[in-house]
Specification:
This protein has 177 residues and is an alpha+beta fold. Helix content is 36%, strand content 24%. The strands form 3 sheets. A 4-stranded mixed β-sheet has the order 7-3-9-8. The chain has a 3-stranded antiparallel β-sheet with strand order 5-4-6, with no helix packed on it. It has a two-stranded antiparallel ribbon with strand order 1-2. Strand 4 and strand 5 form a beta hairpin. The longest helix has 17 residues. It is flat, with a radius of gyration of 19 Å.
Length: 177
């Protein structure tokens, strides 16, 4: 992750919004290169790719965090003992893919994990599993709670985002406009 400060004009290179002067903005050049490499692979060989992670649909600012023993801690508090993480800037990945001149692959999204999974039939699949004769009440409750954890906005449903890469100009399932 590279932290950049905005210029007097309030913009970064390829920045489409008016970020206030002095703002700290996170940039992950290696992440952009990986996304472009995946898009090139999809272009050459077909198929599709999904990127699913926690992140922002609006760009990453101030998302650098540290974790130790499942607790958030200051990321410099214990060098070598703290896992450092940051949100994925899905819009930067999408922009890098869709504006790559030698690439016909297209990025779609991001959409929230909840929207994506529900549009792909998670609720219907969960109901079918719950209604099976051999499903116990305990299993049914676990299935339901697992679905809620994946799609509820206050749990993983909005925190996680999904970006798709395909060779088509048509959005793939789960990304319809």
């Amino acid at each position: 992750i590279t932290l950049l400060q905005t210029t007097d004009e309030g913009k970064l290179e390829n920045d489409d919004d008016d970020t206030p002067v002095g703002s700290i903005v996170e940039v992950c050049p290696q992440g952009i290169l990986v996304a472009q490499d995946v898009a090139s692979l999809v272009q050459r060989q077909g198929g599709a790719a999904l990127f699913i992670d926690y992140g922002s649909a609006q760009g990453s600012r101030d998302s650098l965090r540290g974790f130790a023993r499942h607790e958030q801690v200051p990321f410099l508090s214990r060098p070598g003992q703290v896992d450092i993480t940051a949100d994925v800037d899905f819009m930067a990945l999408k922009h890098a893919i869709n504006h790559q001149s030698d690439n016909t692959a297209r990025a779609f999204g991001p959409v929230t994990q909840g929207e994506f999974l529900m549009s792909m039939g998670l609720q219907e699949r969960t109901i079918r599993l719950i209604e099976r004769d051999e499903t116990t009440d305990e299993q049914a409750e676990r299935l339901y709670q697992s679905m809620v954890r994946l799609v509820a906005p206050e749990q993983m449903g909005e925190r996680y985002k999904v970006l798709a890469i395909t060779r088509s100009d048509e959005p793939p399932p789960g990304f319809e406009l």
